[in-house]
């Protein structure tokens, strides 16, 4: 009897899953998606052309140890953090959770540990609510090859006061795909502040595929902030997906500070009655890179509120595209969709786009948008320089002011300061060639 | 002692609508030393702000002839930030608003721009100096925590210009209508601030429409500007004469052929 040709990497994926002692459901899900992903369509984003990027040029999965990698170039600062997870490649190098929180049932651990210790709980939410595994080619790809990430679970009625902090470091000291999956679940009437950081060590060209799911149950409130700093040699797909039940609230504040080509698929579904999402994005692009950011909020429930605010700065020959998609479906009466996307261009070679897209299928709603692509205000520059501040610094001040209304939304001062410093560094680099 | 000289300065602006160059300053001569306060008065549209912007180095104003020198060295090739670091300051008639940049961080950046990278002003020293100046100007802490000029009232903006002046301690300060829009108490406070700067190492050129300001900041010299030129100079009594007779009086005394905007 003729055996059917094995799907590429089928046994490697099985072996990888077995090496991590994964439950059967996850191995089976991986294998299903492995078979399925090549035929699925890539997600389509207005004006973002990334279809030819090597986002699925995967290498054979194998367990790799990155625990000895030197991280000093990143100046990570988590010594003081009470609740923290630090991973490098597939290796976990720090994990801490306040015992008082653990006693209340809070879970914060790397994904492999989570699926071993809480298989049913993870299974209940893993690609079931915020996004489906076969939603598109890149989601299915992530499911098949995921090799890192985290699980954060906040039980019903629990309020987590201190922020939960995740650092996910890509090991590019060698060829290794960086395929991360973070799952955040806030149960009914819980509250949590979570912040995460993606960064790269090493110069190797690698792909990154990051999916973050945030599931907020009735009356839950999640404050989510992120700083993404993948390297110049990394080509990335970053997907953040939120799903909100009745009267849930989700505040996103995200800094896209990557140095390479990245496409961002940022989506929030306001499913429950009265759900509310505030989405704040800042981005800086430099060099030759393209960051294409598609930010979408869908008002499904009645009286839901979705606000998008995106500010970005473009230097050198780079390109930045902001899509803001506000979609109010039929029946979502009394809902509100507002958005503002602004882009500032610092060089004549820069390319920028701010696309407001409002899709309104219901009459009884409020909606609005504002978008602009402009240059640094000359009058402001002159004023600052007339006090002795040099041109580049004055430019950075004006830019920081421009990005400020997003920065101030970041809940923890440490993350805010870190993002401010990252912006400053990225701007300084970008200004060198001018 | 430092010396600021304006020699036969001709300045033109480009009229955006017509694309034509229009001459505003038609040969201004002015010499001032630190330790001196000069006042310039003159009718609307005569070129007072233009003179201040041209000295400071606003790129919108084109010097077509003449020179501006600080201690004998021409400033014309220097951009505005270098002129500022060389010791010039301009309190603007219409200060810009910058959201997202706090007043306090802006002032610190301005001070540090004058210092070496390894000699930045210590935070405590800065705060003490700031508190002292806030006190003189009757300003509250929350004004400096706010974004630079954003949402400031007209009078608050003027006060904030003087606060910057006091923090930066330039050699020469040009104050363009620092008194306009101020109530009488604010006028006294702002004058107190400027007077606190007076000394052998500080000179100021004060542009005003009102003799009243000069009761509080008594100038050494008063200049009258008309139609892009300084047409008369004298002591403080010249300001009183202007107040009494108006610009038409001065013009007719001098036998000038200048049309004043508000003449019927
Ligand atoms: N940037 C500019 N573009 C075009 N015209 C200008 C510009 N700046 C000044 N002018 C013109 O130059 C002339 C002098 O203006 P300026 O502002 O210097 O007058 P001023 O003496 O300061 O008047 P005021 O007392 O009203 O402040 C005016 O006719 C004005 O319209
Ligand atoms: Mg003026």
Automatic annotation (TrEMBL), chain A:
Residues 84-165 form the SUF system FeS cluster assembly SufBD N-terminal domain. This is Fe-S cluster assembly protein SufD. Coiled coil: none annotated. Pfam families: SUFBD_core, SufBD_N. It comes from the Bacteria. NCBIfam families: sufD (TIGR01981). Belongs to the iron-sulfur cluster assembly SufBD family. InterPro entries: Fe-S_cluster_assembly_SufBD (IPR055346), SUF_FeS_clus_asmbl_SufBD_core (IPR000825), SUF_FeS_clus_asmbl_SufBD_sf (IPR037284), SUF_FeS_clus_asmbl_SufD (IPR011542), SufBD_N (IPR045595). Residues 176-402 form the SUF system FeS cluster assembly SufBD core domain.
UniProtKB/TrEMBL annotation, chain B:
SMART domains: AAA. Belongs to the ABC transporter superfamily. Ycf16 family. InterPro entries: AAA+_ATPase (IPR003593), ABC_transporter-like_ATP-bd (IPR003439), ABC_transporter-like_CS (IPR017871), FeS-cluster_ATPase_SufC (IPR010230), P-loop_NTPase (IPR027417). This is Fe-S cluster assembly ATPase SufC. Residues 4-252 form the ABC transporter domain. CDD domains: ABC_FeS_Assembly (cd03217). NCBIfam families: sufC. PROSITE patterns: ABC_TRANSPORTER_1, ABC_TRANSPORTER_2. Keywords: ATP-binding, Nucleotide-binding.
């Amino acid at each position: 009897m003729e055996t059917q040709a094995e799907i590429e990497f089928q046994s490697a994926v099985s072996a990888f899953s077995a090496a991590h002692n994964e439950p059967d459901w996850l191995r089976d899900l991986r294998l299903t998606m492995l078979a399925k992903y090549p035929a699925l369509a890539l997600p389509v984003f207005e004006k973002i052309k990334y279809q030819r990027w090597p986002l699925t040029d995967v290498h054979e999965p194998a367990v790799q140890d990155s625990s000895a990698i030197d991280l000093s170039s990143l100046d990570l600062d988590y010594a003081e953090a009470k609740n923290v997870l630090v991973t490098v490649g597939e290796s976990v190098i720090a994990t801490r959770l306040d015992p008082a929180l653990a006693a209340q049932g809070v879970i914060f651990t790397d994904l492999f540990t989570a699926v071993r210790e809480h298989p049913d709980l993870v299974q209940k939410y893993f690609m079931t609510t915020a996004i489906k595994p076969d939603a598109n080619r890149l989601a299915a790809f992530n499911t098949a090859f995921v090799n890192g990430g985290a699980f954060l679970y906040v039980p019903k009625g629990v309020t987590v006061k201190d922020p939960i902090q995740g650092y996910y470091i890509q090991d590019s000291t060698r060829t290794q795909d960086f395929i991360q999956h973070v799952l955040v679940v806030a149960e009914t009437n819980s509250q949590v502040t979570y912040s995460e950081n993606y960064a790269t060590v090493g110069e190797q060209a690698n792909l990154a595929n990051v999916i973050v799911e945030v599931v907020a149950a009735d009356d839950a409130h999640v404050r989510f902030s992120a700083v993404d700093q993948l390297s110049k040699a990394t080509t990335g797909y970053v997907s953040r997906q939120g799903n909100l039940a009745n009267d849930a609230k989700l505040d996103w504040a995200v800094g896209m500070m990557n140095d390479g080509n990245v496409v961002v698929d940022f989506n929030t579904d306001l499913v429950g009655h009265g759900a509310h999402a505030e989405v704040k994005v800042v981005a800086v692009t430099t060099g030759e890179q393209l960051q294409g950011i598609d930010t979408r909020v869908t008002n499904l429930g009645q009286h839901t509120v979705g606000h998008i605010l995106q500010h970005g700065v473009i230097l050198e020959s780079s390109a930045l595209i902001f899509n803001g998609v506000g979609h109010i479906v039929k029946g979502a009466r009394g809902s509100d969709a507002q958005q503002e996307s602004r882009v500032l261009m610092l060089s004549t070679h820069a390319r920028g786009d701010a696309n407001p897209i409002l899709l309104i299928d219901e009459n009884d709603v409020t909606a609005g948008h504002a978008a602009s692509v402009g240059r640094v205000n000359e009058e402001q520059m002159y004023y600052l320089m007339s006090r002795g501040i040099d041109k580049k610094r004055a430019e950075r001040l004006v830019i920081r002011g421009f990005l400020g209304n997003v920065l101030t939304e970041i809940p923890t001062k440490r993350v805010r300061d870190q993002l401010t410093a990252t912006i400053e560094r990225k701007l300084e680099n970008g200004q060198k060639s001018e | 002692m430092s010396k600021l000289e304006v020699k036969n300065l001709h300045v033109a602006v480009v009229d955006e609508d017509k694309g034509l160059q229009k001459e505003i300053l038609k040969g201004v001569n002015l010499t001032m030393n630190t330790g001196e306060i000069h006042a310039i008065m003159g009718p609307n549209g005569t070129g007072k702000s233009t003179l201040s912007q041209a000295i400071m180095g606003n790129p919108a104003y084109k010097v077509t002839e003449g020179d501006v020198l600080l201690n004998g060295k021409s400033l014309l090739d220097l951009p505005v930030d270098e002129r500022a670091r060389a010791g010039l300051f301009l309190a603007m008639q219409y200060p810009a608003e910058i959201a997202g940049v706090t007043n306090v961080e802006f002032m610190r950046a301005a001070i540090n721009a004058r210092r070496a990278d390894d000699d930045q002003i210590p935070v405590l020293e800065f705060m003490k100096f700031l508190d002292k100046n806030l006190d003189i100007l009757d300003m509250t802490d929350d004004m400096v925590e706010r974004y630079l000029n954003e949402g400031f009232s007209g009078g608050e903006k003027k006060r904030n210009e003087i606060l910057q002046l006091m923090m930066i301690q330039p050699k020469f300060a040009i104050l363009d209508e620092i008194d306009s829009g101020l109530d009488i108490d604010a006028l006294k406070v702002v004058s107190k601030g400027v007077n606190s700067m007076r000394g052998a190492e500080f000179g100021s050129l004060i542009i005003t429409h009102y003799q009243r300001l000069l009761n509080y900041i008594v100038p050494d010299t008063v200049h009258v500007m008309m139609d892009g030129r300084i047409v008369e100079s004298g002591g403080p009594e010249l300001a009183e004469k202007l107040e009494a007779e108006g610009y038409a009086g001065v013009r007719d005394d001098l036998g000038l052929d200048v049309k004043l905007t508000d003449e019927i």
